[in-house]
Amino acid sequence: LCLYTTGGAGGIGRELAIKFSQCGARIALWDLDKRGLIETAEDLRIRGAVVYTYQCDVTDRTSVQKFSAELRRDMGELDILVNNAGILVGKPVLELEEEDIRKTFEVNVISHFWTIKEFLPSMLERKNGHIVTIASMAAKRGTPLLVDYGASKSAVFGLTEALMSELYALYKHCQVQTTTVCPSFVNTKLINAEEVTKRITRKDRFNMMLVEPEDVAAAAVDGVLRNKIEICVPSTAGFADLSRALLPTKALFTIEQFVDCRFAPAVKHD
User: Fold this and answer.
1) pTM (2 decimals)?
2) What are the beta bridge partners of residue 28?
């Protein structure tokens, strides 16, 4: 069993590698963070895993094609593709620079197309494979200061849903599965970045909502083993879908104001 994950140098990617290696998978880690790749690989090898690392920019299709060829040479064909790489800026939409927006969509969305186009053909040829997408609950519910991030995660949620539909429509007896994991806020460097943490209104309540990377990884492994289409982490986060369907938008905003656990701009805008 061969698994490849983007964003494999730390956070969710690292925990995904650990969990899947415990299931016997050989691991390929892709990331731009060379030091993080080395540290994660060393940790995995101490645990007895077979692991290869590739310092790859997943937003660059040429780079993806190059390292995909290296991966096949080193490990053979891929069984599980995990699109995990992501970035979060955490600014009000009017403070976002053009580069912030472009980079968010290049990493969080466009990179998925490059990896899928690279690895899906062999999965279809072998009639076997699994594509795991690490999305976010921000794909399901708009959040202040996460306009670009939420939009990008909504895009990959729709991408995976449409891909699943297309696979069933175009390929008879298709055994290529898709799983989308939608975590709430995860305790990684994305959330712990100074630019983000300084904008959290109620840190005490926010910390109660955090999930750990290993929880997300465990849910992803369970999703693959059980061929689940969608998973929310924690499972109670799934009530966001229900509340969105049942409650008026103004009621949801009122609840958010009451709880007062949210991102807020560093400078209040009237």
Assistant:
1) 0.84
2) 4, 52
Q: What is the C-alpha to C-alpha distance for residues 38 and 66, in angstroms, rounded to an integer? A: 20
Measured at the CA of 123, the angle between CA 81 and CA 163, to 5 degrees, comes to: 70
Q: Which of 52, 149, 168, 171 is catalytic?
A: 149
Nearest to 4 by CA among 105, 106, 115: 115
pLDDT of residue 101: 97
Identify the H or E element spanning 221: helix 213-225
In the beta sheet, which residues pair with residue 31?
55
3-state secondary structure of 28: strand
Looking at residue 48, the DSSP 8-state letter turns out to be T
Q: Catalytic: 171?
A: no
Q: Residue 79: name the closest of 42, 40, 125, 10 by CA.
A: 125
Neighbouring C-beta atoms of residue 266, cutoff 10 Å:
11
Say what the pLDDT of residue 247 is: 60
Secondary structure class of 1 (helix, strand, coil) = coil
**Domains of the chain, CATH where assigned:** 2-259 (3.40.50.720)
Which ranges of the chain have pLDDT less than 50?
Answer: 193-194, 202-208, 258, 261, 264-270
- The 3-state DSSP class for residue 57 equals coil
Write the CB contacts of 146 (distance below 8 Å, at least 6 apart in sequence): 88, 90, 138, 263
Cβ contact 104:148 at 8 Å: yes
Closest CA to 5 of 70, 101, 82, 75: 82
The one-letter amino acid at 16: L
Task: Give φ, ψ of 177 to 5 degrees.
Answer: -105, 160
